[in-house]
Amino acid sequence: MATDSKAGSTTLPTTIVLAGSTGSLGLLIAHHLRQRGATVRALVRPSSRASAEAESLRLQGAEVVETDYSSVADLTQACQGADCVVSALSGLRPVIVDAQTRLLNAAVAAGVPRFIPSDYSADFTRLPEGSNRNFDLRREFQQRLDQAPIQATSIFNGMFMDLFTGQAPLIQPAIRRIVYWGSADQPLESTTMVDTAAYTAAAALDPTTPRYLRIAGDVTTVHDLQAIASEVMGQPFKLLRVGGLGVLETMIKVTKTLMPAENEVFPPWQGMQYMHNMLSGQVSLPILDNDRYPDLHWTKVQDVLPKRR
Questions:
Q1: pLDDT by residue for the chain (309 residues), tens digit each?
Q2: How far, in Å, CA of 38 to CA of 29, rounded?
């Protein structure tokens, strides 16, 4: 495939197989792939073929392909002639390890040259095993991916910025507090889901991507969040340090014992594990690849916070 001097600028039509296409991130990736002129082959389970999400994909111009994720043969047929397989699958072991492994085997069998796994997270390669259940599953699949005869690229985007006032509630407008553990000076990388999808689409069309790409729409400390929230919302925010990281570890253990919810993808203790990973600095991204695709623009934290009334 020909490219110009800028990484990722394709000059020939490219076919991308997109798994997990009906999820929030998958729909966004499909949108940005289509904006870049790619042919998108969106894989959907039989139960989703008539869903509103599948119809949205069709309206965007994607080819919606009903696929049995339990069948390598079915997945191999769906991958024929593709230039890259992009996974945006979400789930636990049956999905992240088992279904992605079948998708990987199908991509290899179909001769697809490149594979982007469903990572889209903090850089879990820097974490010890056992510190985050969902990261452990991705690490297990990563080991299989690295042994396969295919060019792989993982995209690490820190945390989804959209969660700052949601599942990762550092910013608490109701009490005008920034709630945190550990150090208020620890840099935190975050990227919106939209920006992550746009970058993934560019990377999918770029045959020269390295094994890892690391991005951050914004890098902020807790002190930065305090200043940003105060400015955007028009009211002074204060810091509320709940305790050190050891306190957070204890909270994780207690929450996991009282509310194990092991079959949920994001139980409360899982989000707490993610916050510990971020606030510990273990997943900090010292080098960013934001400038790889110069046409992209990055959303900042102040852009996602509710504005003053």
A1: 333 334 444 445 799 999 999 999 999 999 999 999 999 999 999 999 889 999 999 999 999 999 999 999 999 999 999 999 999 999 999 999 999 999 999 999 999 999 999 999 999 998 999 999 999 999 999 999 999 999 999 999 999 998 887 767 799 998 999 999 999 999 999 999 999 999 999 999 999 999 999 999 999 999 999 999 999 999 999 999 999 999 999 999 999 999 998 889 888 888 899 999 999 999 988 899 999 999 999 999 999 998 876
A2: 11
Two tokens, residue 221: 């400390």
Degrees to nearest 5, angle at CA 182 with 179 and 183 = 95
- According to DSSP, the β-strands at 177-181 and 159-160 are unpaired
Give the integer Cα–Cα distance in Å for 133 and 264. Answer: 11
Beta strands in 106-217 (DSSP E): 114-116, 151-152, 154-156, 159-160, 171-172, 177-181, 188-191, 212-214
The angle at the Cα of 38, spanning 37 to 40, to the nearest 5 degrees, equals: 135
Q: Are 106 and 141 in contact (CB under 8 A)?
A: no
- Alpha helices, H only, 114-211: 133-147, 193-204
β-strand partners of 307? none
Dihedrals phi, psi of 175, to nearest 5 degrees: -110, 5
